[in-house]
Amino acid sequence: MAIVVIGGHSRSVGKTSVVAGLIAALPEFNWMAMKITQYGHGICSANGEPCDCVTDDHTRAITEELDRSGDTDTSRFLVAGAKRSIWVRTRQGMLAEAMPDIRRKITGAENVIMESNSVIRFLRPDLYLTVLDVENADFKDSAREFLDRADAVIVHRTDSAPKWNAVSLKPVQGRPFFQIEPPEYVTAEIVEFVRNKLLLRQPALT
Question: Which residues are within 8 A (CB) of 81 and not within 5 positions of it... i.e. 6 or more apart?
């Protein structure tokens, strides 16, 4: 089983679109898709609604997506061709408590593609790609922390200087950079890079 993780420095930079694009472009990998969301203080992980609960039942929730309307991120993964799609919600800073459940969920999958940054703290994927948009000034701590773990960078094409402050791209100096222009989030070069990396890790057929 190969594990691919797609991260990004903020919301709305195209992480979900990259995941869906890779699922559609690489159907031979029979993907299980997973989106990991961490909610801040006062938000219930069970349903994403305001909540003051402190019970374990509300600190995390894992559900399998069955809807194929394409109206949610995890539904988009199914529409793209994922064999299964899972949504993991945890309270901020409590992803560790969900990891045993996550590992059980992916057991037996042929290949897994995850949308997350923080999961890098708890597992070592076969491939980690990070999505950057210099027009977006927000830069998550988790994206900054694991930037040096990225095998490649997917960056929105622009002539503008980055709007984020005090962020250096030196940790990924020398790694492949792939430029994208939405609505195209996955180019042929990105697909070939991912395919080759995953095929190289698989044992040769005898």
Answer: 23, 24, 27, 31
